[in-house]
Amino acid sequence: MKNIKNISIAVALVVFNFSFAQVAIGKDVVEGSSTVLDFNNVPGNTKGLILPATSGLPAGALVNGTFIFDVTDNKVKVYENDTWVLLSDAGNSSAVVINNSAETGNGVIVGASSASADGVLVLESPDKAMVLPKVAAPHVNVKNPYPGMMCYDTSSKTLAIFDGVVWNYWK
Fold it and tell me: So where are the chain's domains?
């Protein structure tokens, strides 16, 4: 049953990619015309975006804006201007379930028919952005955050990233 749901979501993403180049998750309509990926940001939301957990830094062509949770040092990182920038202190990856299955396909591209970036989920748009899930005070309201969870904290108006131990906040 879970596989059918995952396949349905993947098919829906592909269909929306070619039809609208905008995707709404957890709601029926994308808010505004400048959003390529939009989440259901209702008051009381406690769900965020989970970053891919990698064993070390990804190989291959990297592009600015690539986010990972590196389980070798338990830190959240973003690739920017040919270097990895740390977004968290060393956390704890013991809750991370490592996926050891063979990777198939090239990931999902939203907003274009192809991408120069290689990733699980690639958002391509010259004039649209991703709106992160919005959570008020995630350190209080998210009861069981997963390492690598990322959201926008509406209380502090900052980017919030969970490293497996504590929430890290960025303006």
Answer: 2-170
Higher pLDDT, 66 or 124: 66
Q: How far apart are CA 42 and CA 26, in angstroms?
A: 10
Q: CA-to-CA distance for 152 and 25, rounded, in angstroms? A: 16
Look at residue 155 in the predicted model and tell me its pLDDT: 96
pTM here is: 0.76
Mapping DSSP onto H, E and C, the string for the chain reads CHHHHHHHHHHHHHHHHHHCCCEEECCCCCCCCCEEEEECCCCCCCCCEECCEECCCCCCCCCCCEEEEECCCCEEEEEECCEEEECCCCCCCCCCCCCCCCCCCCCEEECCCCCCCCCCEEECCCCCEEECCEECCHHHHCCCCCCCEEEEECCCCEEEEECCCCEEEEC
